[in-house]
Write a structure and sequence with these properties.
Structural class: mainly alpha
Largest sheet: none
Number of helices: 3
Low-confidence stretches: none
Radius of gyration: 23 Å
Mean pLDDT: 82
Order of helices and strands: HHH
Length: 106
């Protein structure tokens, strides 16, 4: 389970990096808009290929994150259904801890 959390955290960081890469590449494409010539065309094609690759990877990461979220929800649901009183006790303990932390702030 810890490995899945580490993967999810890494995917989150990778997703942010990919979003930044896409934004930078699109900005570069926009700045190349008026440029002509063979070199500009090759650069435009390379940037477009990079953007397309980054978008595909981002979609993959989002799909993986969605799948992990669904698995975690299913696991939690099964646990709560098989151990309802334990789930109530954990929720009550969490409420007490949060209440204690909030009361210290005031």
């Amino acid at each position: 389970m810890s490995r899945e959390r580490d993967d999810a955290a890494n995917d989150g960081a990778a997703g942010d990096d990919l979003r930044d890469l896409i934004a930078q590449a699109e900005s570069m494409l926009h700045s190349l808009g008026g440029q002509t010539g063979e070199a500009a065309q090759r650069l435009r094609e390379r940037v477009e290929a990079t953007v397309n690759s980054a978008r595909a990877r981002l979609a993959s990461i989002e799909g993986d994150a969605r799948e992990l979220t669904e698995q975690a929800a299913d696991t939690a649901d099964r646990y709560v259904r098989s151990n309802p009183w334990a789930a109530v006790a954990v929720a009550a303990a969490a409420g007490v801890i949060v209440g204690a932390l909030l009361s210290r702030r005031r």
